């Protein structure tokens, strides 16, 4: 994922509101639970995302989706299960027979 400051200045991503972009970075880098709007975007809930978007976030929805697709690892978003597993990873189980 590109650095936060690069994303803020990127021609395609600069329309994404700063609070939304900061939330994406918190989600990806620190596994912080996002707000309702971003959760809907991350889980592919288009109707929920549109219904929860403020004016600026709604206007930048396309750019946000492009940013996620191009910059965020694919195992972190795309379905409710992927988002849940990203936020709450299960500890690695030792292999059978390993000491």
Order of helices and strands: HHHHHHH
Number of beta strands: 0
Average per-residue pLDDT, rounded, comes to 94
The profile of the biggest β sheet is:
none
Question: Beta-strand level of the residues, as a percent range?
Answer: under 5%
Characterization of this structure:
The model has no long low-confidence stretch (mean pLDDT 94). The protein is an all-alpha fold and 99 residues long. The protein is globular, with a radius of gyration of 15 Å. It has helices at 4-9, 18-30, 36-42, 46-52, 55-59, 61-71, 80-87. It has seven helices and no strands.
Summarize the structure.
This protein is an all-alpha fold. It has seven helices and no strands. The chain has helices at residues 4-9, 18-30, 36-42, 46-52, 55-59, 61-71, 80-87.
How would you describe this structure in keywords?
99 residues; mainly alpha; 0% strand; 7 helices
Mind sketching the topology for me?
Layout: H1 4-9, H2 18-30, H3 36-42, H4 46-52, H5 55-59, H6 61-71, H7 80-87
Helix pairs in contact: 3-4
